[in-house]
Task: structure prediction
Amino acid sequence: MTRNGLALRLALAGLAAGGIYGLGFQSGARAADANRVFELRTYYTHPGKLEDLKARFRNQTTRLFEKHGMTNIGYWVPQDEPKSKNTLIYLLAYPSREAAKKSWDGFRNDADWKKAQAESEKAGKIVERIESVYMDPTDFSKLK
Result:
């Protein structure tokens, strides 16, 4: 068998295994997902500060979240006013609620985060308030 043929067979075997995983058969990774928890966070900014907040997330925060074991799922801005002017909504995932606490503790104490926050707030505070909700997926959720 040629080297390319072997690579193709390995790739197809990986796709087949992925298909089995997607059908819900238990595996080590799937079992570990059983405790996975999601956090929905909503940030409300001071007037005129949404772009500053988005820049901070784009340039520093998302990378620092990953550094501390948080999985960035997605980030959104509402379409309709007034929330479209001052609201950032995002979803994070963690292996467990305990892991979430550990990740946030590490993030808040990270020197790079403290520096990024101070730099971005030279002209004043960005965030007015934060709402956080921890969530478990339902049995019919596609995202688990």
Summary: The chain has two domains: 1-33, 36-135. Residues 3-22 form the longest helix (20 residues). The CA atoms of residues 77 and 88 lie 5 Å apart.
